[in-house]
């Protein structure tokens, strides 16, 4: 998923991801970030760290281990706090905000996505000729909203039974054309999502020709990309037999 696509789904978190990616590519350290963007004293860093730990304790009753704090430039003053929850899973968490009063976090999205991903991969493999589950997120449609679920989070499967319409599934898949049967495969996948009681979905499905399976490992997969499907909306109302409106032809199959 490129950064523009990440931004469409994650909203606020996209800016942070862009920032972190830039830091990784440039090889910057936390200290150099502080010098380049905004000065953060040890006292300020300790205060923000304590506030983040307290936020997680109050919101989810979970201890929180901070691994890195980055402060944005002097104009935004946003803190980016990375760490993990001590919940038995070491769920990674990103907290951000200009002050503890406006903190937002990624905990619920990470928690539910990690729980759902193995099941989603199983369904995709069963219904389609799956090449790769590129990415998958299940969480709040509005990432800026205050957490609807606090304390011990319910299982993602409990939420699906409820059919919570404040939540959304975002998934990027790569599949093979399966002898020209990719439409039927995608339809089966959508029907499985209907059965699981999903509502809002944002799906990107890339279809590759079957020849890619036997192609050399160092060959560019893009040479075999045939079609992209961008499917979004309430999956309960999407007609799986009419996929052409969501289809973009990249290259005609031979």
Description:
- This protein has seven helices and nine strands.
- With 254 residues, the chain is of the alpha+beta class.
- The longest helix has 21 residues, at 107-127.
- The radius of gyration is 21 Å and the shape is elongated.
- Helix 1 (3-10) packs antiparallel against helix 2.
- It is 36% helix and 26% strand.
- The protein has two domains: 42-102; 107-249, no CATH class.
- The strands form two sheets. Strands 5-6-7-8-9 form a five-stranded mixed sheet, with helices on one face.
Task: Give the helix/strand layout.
Blueprint: H1 3-10, H2 12-26, H3 30-37, H4 42-60, E1 64-71, E2 79-85, E3 92-97, E4 104-105, H5 107-127, E5 130-140, H6 156-162, E6 167-176, H7 182-195, E7 200-208, E8 225-234, E9 247-249
Helix pairs in contact: 1-2, 5-7
Write a concise keyword list for the protein shown above.
four-stranded antiparallel sheet; alpha+beta; 2 domains
What topology, given as strand order, has the largest sheet? 5-6-7-8-9
What is the overall number of helices? 7
Q: What's the count of strands?
A: 9
First-residue to last-residue Cα separation: 27 Å
Question: What is the structure about, briefly put?
Answer:
The protein has 254 residues and is α+β, with helices and mostly antiparallel strands. It has helices spanning 3-10, 12-26, 30-37, 42-60, 107-127, 156-162, 182-195, and strands at residues 64-71, 79-85, 92-97, 104-105, 130-140, 167-176, 200-208, 225-234, 247-249. The chain has 2 domains: 42-102; 107-249, no CATH class.
């Amino acid at each position: 998923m490129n950064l523009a696509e990440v931004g469409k789904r994650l909203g606020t978190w996209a800016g942070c991801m862009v920032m972190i990616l830039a830091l990784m590519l440039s090889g910057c350290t936390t200290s150099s970030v502080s010098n380049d963007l905004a000065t953060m004293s040890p006292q300020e860093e300790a205060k923000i760290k304590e506030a983040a730990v307290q936020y997680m304790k109050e919101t989810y009753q979970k201890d929180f281990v901070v691994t890195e704090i980055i402060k944005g430039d002097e104009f935004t003053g946003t803190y980016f706090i990375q760490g993990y929850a001590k919940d038995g899973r070491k769920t990674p968490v990103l907290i951000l905000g200009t002050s503890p009063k406006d903190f937002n976090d990624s905990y619920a999205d990470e928690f539910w996505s990690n729980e759902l991903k193995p099941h989603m991969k199983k369904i995709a493999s069963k219904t389609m000729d799956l090449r790769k589950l590129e990415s998958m997120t299940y969480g709040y449609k509005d990432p800026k909203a205050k957490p609807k679920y606090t304390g011990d989070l319910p299982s993602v499967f409990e939420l699906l039974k409820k059919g919570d319409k404040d939540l959304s599934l975002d998934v990027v898949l790569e599949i093979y054309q399966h002898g020209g049967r990719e439409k039927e495969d995608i339809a089966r996948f959508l029907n499985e999502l209907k059965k699981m009681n999903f509502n809002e979905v944002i799906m990107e499905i890339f279809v590759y020709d079957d020849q890619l399976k036997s192609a050399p490992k160092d060959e560019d997969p893009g040479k075999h990309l045939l079609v992209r499907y961008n499917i979004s909306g309430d999956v309960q109302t999407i007609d799986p037999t009419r996929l052409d409106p969501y289809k973009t032809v990249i290259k005609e199959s031979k």
